[in-house]
Amino acid sequence: MKLPFVFGVHNHQPLGNFDSVIKRLTEESYYPFLKILAQYPFFRLSLHASGILLKWWEDNHPKTFELLGKLIDRGQIEPVTGGFFEPILAVIPREDRKEQILRHKDYLKKHFGQNPVGLWLTERVWDQALVEDLALLGIKYVVVDDRHFLVSGFEKNELYGYYLTEAEGQKLAVFPIDETLRYAIPFWPVERLGRYLEDISFRGGRLAIYFDDGEKFGVWPGTKKWVFEEGWLKKFLETMGQWLEKGKIELLTYAQALEKITPNGLAYLPTASYAEMEEWALPAKRILELEELINRLKPDKSRFLAFIRGGHWRNFFIKYPESNLLHKRMLKVSELSRRHLEPEARLDLLASQCNDAYWHGIFGGLYLPHLRQAVWQKLLSAESKLRSKQKEEIEICDIDYDGQEEICCFSPKAAVIFKPSYGGQIIEWSSLENTHNYTNVLTRRFEAYHKSIRHPETQAVAGEEEVSSIHNLRKKPSEEVLKALVYDWYERHSLIEHFFDPGRELEDFVRCDFGEWGDFANQPFNWHKKGKELIFFRDGGLYPPGSSRRPLLLRKKIKVEKEGLVLQVFYELEYRASQKTRCFFGVELNLYPPLLAWGEGCVKINGQKLTFHRPIKFFGKTLTIETEKKGKFILKLDEQASFFMFPVKTVSQSEAGFDLTTQGLAIMPFWPIEFQEGSHINKTLTLEIS
């Protein structure tokens, strides 16, 4: 009996990825895969490529684009659609979702003459609410993981076929990707893979289902040699050809399977993604607890694992406030774009919905500043077009949906957002003129994989005749990486007030362990508006070691000038304790200047150049961060101050090992203060984007 086999490949590169990287991936994976595939015309497959990658091929690598078209023309490849800019469809507004899909469908129709009926769900993030929209757009099927079905109560042997689901009277076919095949291809020897396919057939399976990342063929570590140089792909295709001749297998595209094979029945699936994604969406400590629980299940792991789940994709907005702000600002600009018809702004807005910079698993994503920069740049470009004819305004709203109000200053030139509930700090300061968010800095947090850096354990390795999956590679951290495992106790915003131990030094500031005496850095402030001035204040205190609270009233008055490009900041400190207190008072800024985004420029204090690649202490009154063609960031003080400055670096994993990534610059001018009963101390800062 023939075993029908559907084989799918998904290819995507993030918005903002470097051209050199996409070129390398194309020449090491995407193109050679298609080139070898062309030699075996009997092997049919379904292929999804995001609009971002398709457009890059069209503009920069025409031979890949043309070869893809040739294979589509001869019926060997079925093109699969998706959101053009690869968004998580379930978390963007409904009208945007429809436009993303229609743009991708129109592109495939225009360039390849095909009207796709299948849709690739980005990161396989499923939500039943998608069904109606997809069906009404002409989508007949989607692919998800078999886990989506297993957590609903289905058994593994029921998943060698597809099911129908419905919502609002609209039907949609859902194919469950076989997890075993997803982990086997291309890592198992072809003989072992063949035995597994035979086992599916022997057990009465109606369909073998595979769909996964194309980068596994040549880009993942070890796969270039294994797949191409040692011939795994050719051997696999030749084996499929032999099976085809013997009548053991039937090679179909997903669309063909939909026509030839009847569904297994009806299914309703919960909000879900693949198992690793659900784990990554959990808080770091909960990930470790989940891993411990799974380990305790042995040897009953396979029996009960389906009933143990992590979080869902939206939880990344809780786990990473930087992601949440980006997402909620996207929603704000999306709403604006639907009220003001501006086609170019709509295109920029849709591009800003590219998923990669909104989340982090074990590699890249949110942790790559150039990806966040690219998304912010598109979002701000859209906003710039939409606000170009609007007046300057101050809007009081809950911009990040946390139940607390923020103060949003919008103009045709800038967007500045203050958060009274968190220190009255700046959580966003963006220039709409150069489409750059100067506060795009990631806080240093504990990640679950940091435990294995500090306490290395034996990791699974491949057998002699197979190659390791990307998840099982041995990695050894350097001393520099170990030293960089530092975690912040407050979010890295700007205008953070510190009162700290006068005995602490630069290295303590880098380690975020500088003896904080005040209760201002991450606490709520009251506020009111007086004319054009925003006044934040907190009746807080100082807590020197071994001492009770010493009352201190802090007022932070901010004038937003030049349509948000200049901030005048006035501090008033009223000391209300009887004891003398000597400490340092500092104002911390965390910045992602164009200097870091573009890799060119300099930092100066009083006109003299400084290094910004390592921690440094210096003195001065005027600090400038210059970038050619992108202007300057200027900090002016009313009097000389000491400064601490260091590059904020995070530790994350990569295919090659562990990466140290510069997320921004932490800059803090500070002054020695001697408080006496009744002391009134004033400080003034001017911040300017020129």
UniProtKB/TrEMBL annotation:
Q: Which residues form the Alpha-amylase/4-alpha-glucanotransferase C-terminal domain?
A: 398-682
**In this record, what's one Pfam family?**
AmyA-gluTrfs_C
The positions making up the signal sequence are: none
GO molecular function annotation = carbohydrate binding; catalytic activity
What UniProt keywords apply to this chain's record, in alphabetical order? Carbohydrate metabolism
- Top-rank taxon: Bacteria
Q: Which residues form the Alpha-amylase/4-alpha-glucanotransferase central domain?
A: 311-384
Residue ranges constituting the Glycoside hydrolase family 57 N-terminal domain according to the UniProt record: 6-270
Q: Which InterPro entries match?
A: A-amylase/a-glucTrfase_C (IPR015179), A-amylase/a-glucTrfase_central (IPR015178), Gal_mutarotase_sf_dom (IPR011013), GH-type_carb-bd (IPR014718), GH57_Enzymes (IPR052046), Glyco_hydro/deAcase_b/a-brl (IPR011330), Glyco_hydro_57/38_cen_sf (IPR028995), Glyco_hydro_57_N (IPR004300)
One GO term (biological process): carbohydrate metabolic process
Family, according to the entry, reads as follows:
Belongs to the glycosyl hydrolase 57 family.
Q: What protein am I looking at?
A: 4-alpha-glucanotransferase
Native organism taxonomy: Bacteria, Pseudomonadati, Thermodesulfobacteriota, Thermodesulfobacteria, Thermodesulfobacteriales
